[in-house]
């Protein structure tokens, strides 16, 4: 099996507030709404993802931190209740997900071949982190597409930002090779907030949007500068100034997902589609899409044999697993 | 005296999950001695602070009466899971929230089914109090709190225990030097990753043994920076705060590596 390809990448941040605001049945706490701009942004992203009909979603999360190497979820079926340790009042979510273990193993192997420390996570009692779960819920609440979950090695924090992001570049390239070799049509999800300056106290009613605003004007201006460059497809320029952005806006992209995704896509100078921007407890969050099919950089999906698109993706997955 | 015993212990799952690995045995033996000392001190509760329970918004205090489950470490998931069964002194915990808030540090209690309990808390409670005889009061490590704030919080917690007529054992859970091996190693050959880290750790352990608080105060910042000490050694600040600043020396029950990082089991003489 070969000729797999990356068909899109999304900047898909993970504030649990968005799940809380939506009130899905899986989440225990209930809200009166809130953060609509960002939730509507995700609505647009969901629609686009549906049309893409991927076989698999790969997500890199800053909240699965592994000190020794890059880890990949490697258990076919994982379930449990994820409680956010920072916002347990907002996020207590019962999850159930399927992992594309074959692709995860290929990613792990290719990463190791490129000299990275890479490990499979095989413990069935492992609790998936809330960053992974929030991003996946926001982009695909049906949970019907298999996933690959990748941890954040703390290298950009332990080493210098540049050295750490260099590793993420290598991980991205390895991920691409694995996707190509396994024949998957894959969507990448970079689970990152932009400016990460945040409030230090939560409003009594967390969803009271009269209290929501950027924590820092300088951080906001940084976000707008980065988004504008991304909308223009000036990818090289974004990566030139990324370390400065990280330093000055305390940006969560430091944890590497954004670099991983762009490295895997080959840093295309392709205008990103901004689905929406909003702040959450003061931090800056953008939902953005780089659709490689629309740009002619990846093939369109073959029409599904029958039924809705999801069934097609499911069948392809089941076939690949056999 | 409210604090009847005080300990600084490592929170790495490695020692708990592979106690027979030769380089990790000194830590396990140290935990055994510390556990005996803790039991002998007969506290009404354990005041515990783990660097691995991370908070960002407030000072968080665990207030669920009983916490049970099996935790899988984020990094060491291949070594198995860590069952736990922890009782909480909820009266004292709620009183701490109130008192710490009154002292000007924004505080909150957490009481949620399946709230994630960090590896450090589980390792420390399993190894220091294997039979779960003593209820706990647990505070999170707020990343924005400095050592002074952490000390103040611990001091208020100890005073709150005193007001309830309770004796406490004070436990700070965290590592020493923080340079780690970033690639897999043969665990039977684990050692402190950097010689300079090892030297720093030993220097600080000697000062602790002698109770040289004056000299320590002058060097901790430098130690934290140069040896990349776990969370700036705030777990030590917790202990200092809860015992009222002074101690008369310490016994190092065990010192050794945790995948390159420094770890020690220390009992303070009060
Ligand atoms: Fe985050």
Task: Describe the secondary structure blueprint for this structure.
The complex is a heterodimer of chains A (322) and B (270).
Chain A: E1 5-11, H1 16-22, H2 36-52, E2 56-66, E3 70-73, E4 77-83, E5 92-98, H3 101-113, E6 118-121, H4 130-139, E7 147-153, H5 155-158, H6 161-182, E8 185-190, H7 217-231, H8 235-249, H9 257-265, E9 273-280, E10 283-291, H10 309-321
Helix pairs in contact in A: 3-6, 6-9, 7-8
Chain B: E1 3-9, H1 13-17, H2 25-40, E2 45-55, E3 59-62, E4 66-71, E5 82-87, H3 90-102, E6 107-110, H4 119-128, E7 136-142, H5 147-163, E8 168-173, H6 195-210, H7 213-226, H8 234-242, E9 250-258, E10 261-268
Parallel strand pairs in B: 1-8, 2-7, 2-8, 3-6
Antiparallel strand pairs in B: 1-10, 4-5, 9-10
Helix pairs in contact in B: 3-5, 5-8, 6-7
What would you say this structure looks like, in words?
- The complex is a heterodimer of chains A (322) and B (270).
- Chain A is 39% helix and 22% strand.
- The longest helix of chain A has 22 residues, at 161-182.
- Chain A is of the alpha/beta class and 322 residues long.
- Chain A starts with a strand and ends with a helix.
- Chain A has helices at residues 16-22, 36-52, 101-113, 130-139, 155-158, 161-182, 217-231, 235-249, 257-265, 309-321, and strands at 5-11, 56-66, 70-73, 77-83, 92-98, 118-121, 147-153, 185-190, 273-280, 283-291.
- In chain A, a hairpin with a 2-residue loop joins β9 and β10 (283-291).
- The model of chain A is unreliable at 306-322 (pLDDT under 50).
- In chain A, the strands form 3 sheets. In chain A, strands 7-2-8-1-10-9 form a 6-stranded mixed beta sheet, sandwiched between helices.
- By secondary structure, chain B is an alpha/beta fold.
- Chain B has helices at 13-17, 25-40, 90-102, 119-128, 147-163, 195-210, 213-226, 234-242; strands at 3-9, 45-55, 59-62, 66-71, 82-87, 107-110, 136-142, 168-173, 250-258, 261-268.
- In chain B, strands 7-2-8-1-10-9 form a 6-stranded mixed beta sheet, sandwiched between helices. Chain B has a two-stranded parallel ribbon with strand order 3-6.
- The radius of gyration of chain B is 17 Å and the shape is globular.
- The termini of chain B are close together.
- The A-B interface holds A 64-69, 71, 80-81, 83, 85-86, 88, 92, 117, 119, 121-123, 125-127, 129, 151, 153, 155, 158, 198-202 and B 53-58, 70-72, 74-75, 77-78, 80-81, 106, 110, 112-116, 144, 180-184, 259.
- The structure holds fe (ii) ion (FE2).
- The site of fe (ii) ion has 6 residues of chain A, from β2.
- Fe (ii) ion binds at residues 14, 62-63, 131, 193, 252 of chain A.
């Amino acid at each position: 099996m070969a000729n797999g390809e990356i068909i899109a990448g999304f900047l898909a941040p993970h504030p649990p507030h968005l799940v809380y605001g939506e009130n899905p049945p899986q989440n225990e706490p209930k809200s009166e709404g809130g953060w609509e701009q960002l939730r509507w942004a995700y609505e647009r992203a969901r629609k686009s993802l549906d049309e893409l009909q991927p076989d698999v979603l790969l997500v890199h999360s800053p909240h699965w931190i592994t000190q020794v190497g890059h880890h990949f979820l490697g258990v076919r079926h994982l379930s449990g209740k994820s409680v956010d340790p920072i916002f347990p009042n907002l996020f207590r979510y019962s999850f159930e997900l399927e992992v594309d273990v074959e692709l995860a193993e290929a990613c792990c192997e290719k990463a190791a071949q490129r000299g990275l420390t890479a490990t499979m996570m095989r413990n069935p009692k492992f609790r998936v982190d809330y960053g992974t779960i929030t991003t996946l819920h926001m982009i695909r609440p049906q949970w019907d597409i298999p996933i690959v979950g990748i941890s954040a090695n703390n290298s950009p924090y332990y080493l210098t930002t540049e050295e750490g992001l260099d590793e993420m570049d290598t991980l991205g390239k390895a991920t691409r090779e694995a996707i190509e070799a396994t024949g998957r049509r894959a969507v990448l999800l970079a689970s990152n907030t932009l400016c990460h300056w945040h409030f230090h106290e939560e409003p009594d009613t967390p969803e009271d949007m009269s209290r929501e605003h950027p924590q820092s004007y300088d951080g906001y201006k940084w976000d707008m500068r980065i988004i504008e460059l991304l909308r223009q497809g000036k990818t090289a320029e974004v990566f030139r100034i990324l370390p400065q952005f990280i330093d000055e806006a305390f940006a969560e992209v430091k944890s590497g997902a954004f670099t991983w995704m762009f490295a895997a896509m080959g840093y295309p100078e392709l205008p990103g589609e901004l689905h929406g921007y909003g702040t959450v407890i003061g931090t800056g969050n953008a939902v953005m899409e780089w659709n490689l099919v629309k740009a002619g950089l990846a093939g369109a999906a073959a029409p599904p044999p029958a039924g809705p698109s999801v069934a097609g993706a499911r069948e392809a997955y089941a076939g690949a697993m056999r | 005296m409210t604090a009847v015993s005080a300990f600084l212990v490592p929170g790495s799952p490695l020692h708990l999950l592979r106690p027979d690995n030769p380089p990790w045995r000194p830590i396990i033996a140290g935990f055994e001695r510390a556990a005996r000392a803790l039991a002998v001190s007969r506290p009404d509760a354990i005041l515990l602070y783990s660097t691995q329970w991370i908070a960002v918004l407030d000072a968080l205090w665990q207030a669920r009466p009983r916490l049970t489950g099996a935790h899988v470490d984020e990094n060491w998931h291949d070594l198995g899971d860590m069952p736990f069964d922890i009782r909480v002194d909820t009266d004292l915990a709620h009183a701490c929230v109130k008192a710490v808030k009154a002292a000007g540090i924004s505080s909150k209690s957490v009481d949620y089914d399946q709230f994630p309990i960090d590896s450090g808390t589980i390792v420390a409670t399993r190894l220091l109090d294997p039979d779960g005889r003593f209820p706990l009061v647990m505070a999170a490590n707020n990343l924005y709190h400095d050592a002074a704030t952490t000390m103040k919080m611990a001091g208020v917690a100890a005073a709150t225990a005193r007001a309830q007529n309770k004796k406490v054992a004070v436990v700070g859970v965290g590592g020493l030097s923080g340079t780690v091996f970033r690639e897999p190693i043969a665990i039977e050959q684990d050692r402190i990753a950097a010689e300079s880290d090892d030297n720093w750790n030993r220097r600080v352990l000697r000062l602790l043994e002698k109770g040289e608080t004056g000299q320590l105060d002058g060097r901790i910042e430098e130690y934290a920076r140069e040896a990349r000490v776990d969370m700036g050694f705030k777990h030590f600040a917790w202990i200092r705060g809860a015992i009222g600043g002074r101690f008369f020396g310490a016994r190092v029950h065990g010192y050794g590596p945790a995948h390159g990082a420094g770890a020690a089991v220390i009992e303070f003489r009060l």
